[in-house]
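Our consortium's second objective concerns turning raw sequence data into structural hypotheses that experimental partners can test. To show how far this objective has progressed, the report includes one record in full. It was chosen at random from the queue rather than selected for favorable results. The single chain below, 262 residues long, was entered without modification.
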Amino acid sequence: MGNLLEIRGLNKTFGDFDALSDIEFAVGRGKMIGLIGPNGCGKSTMMKCICKVHEPSSGTITIDGNDVGTMRPSEVARLVASVPAEAGPTFGMSVMDMVMLGRYPYINKIWWEDPEDERIAAEALRTFGIYDLRRKQVSLLSSGERSRALIAKAYVQEPKLMLVDEPTAHLDMKYKLQVMEYLRSMSKTDMTVMVAEHDISLMARYCDLCVIMRKGRIVTVGDPKKVIDADLIKNVYEVDSRVGLDEDGEIYVLPKRYVSGT
């Protein structure tokens, strides 16, 4: 079926700062992809280039055979959905209202959604366990509820590719696992889910493929069980760590100490 996402020679500069340099990789359909790297390494910038929030300085991004650079934002929104780390200002918006915003690329009328849009939104709310909260203000949700509402909003866009930025930030262990299970279940369909996250052990457990970044460049791409080791953690994060397998064969990463000057 070919690759869903292909990035070739992607560069992004802001003035004299090279945020992304020579980014190249490709991923298939129905995969969960982990973006791993320290703060400021370019993960969020790359995702913003993919969904055309940022225009690349050079290079090409192809999604489902379509060159993103030649597409209108409304066309990109039918292929790519983004889940930000924070909801941003919601101005008294209800959960249902926010999720319905995800149907915007499909609304032909000037203002009103049709019953099919409402059905899709309600189904998503049930899928993510927040239907009973549909009339509640987003600002009153817990961190876990808000994270699920943001994912539901992206889900109703019916994208080929979902980009998720730090979905487990501020969540306790239960909700971290719950959110990752939701994302993993979506990747079992034809949708590919790309997640930027700092919990390396969590990413190694759930992701089919990891893209490791440092200072705007890709260090390596591969199966997390094959590419994540103590040497990679030291090179990328400047941290000594213990990397091993638990009794279930899952990778764990235990940071030990910061290594100065690496």
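The partners drew two points from this record. The chain has nine helices and twelve strands. The chain has two domains: 1-79+159-227, 91-157. Both points have been shared with the crystallography group to help prioritize constructs.
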